[in-house]
Specification:
The chain is built from seven helices and seven strands, in the order ααββαβαβαβαββα. The chain is an alpha/beta fold. It has a domain of about 120 residues: Glutaredoxin. The protein has a five-stranded mixed beta sheet with strand order 5-4-3-6-7. The protein is globular.
Amino acid sequence: MSIVKLLALGTLLLLTGCGDTFDDLAPSGKDRRPTVEKNVPGSYVGQNAADFTLPDTLGENVNLATELADAKGVVLYFNMWCPICDSHMSHMRSYVVPDFPDVKFLIVDYVSGSVERSRSAQLSNGYAGFTVLVDTDGSVLNQFDATMGTTVVIDSAGIIRMNEDYKDGSKLYDTLEALP
């Protein structure tokens, strides 16, 4: 087969494999996300965070409602102990945490599988001073539709104010500054 035929075949396969790619070239501009019903339990901004209890790496049970009772808010950071998570948490530890002493910062480990392994990861990564929650069954991960690097801010009334991947920390900082 000649090179021209191979290129033509490759281009044809590429274009037919892209499905509705041509729709992306002229987007409608419509927001197709579902309408978020406020003041109901859920994982979206404006919804109420459902209460949960998880063990921390010291074996103590940590309850969201209890944490919110004496704080302006709670930040959940979903962590895999990878280099990306470490850079996010290092940035948060250096540039965000010091400015918000009335906010609780909780790391949610959903990959280690046990309190013991999570504690080991916590210590070996240098986060002994942080509260690390151990989500062995992924229930809290699923509750917030989270994944690696997801950062959730919940205000003292239990309302989710932010639920998105950590980027450069500016959205987190702005969200925390705006807490009532």
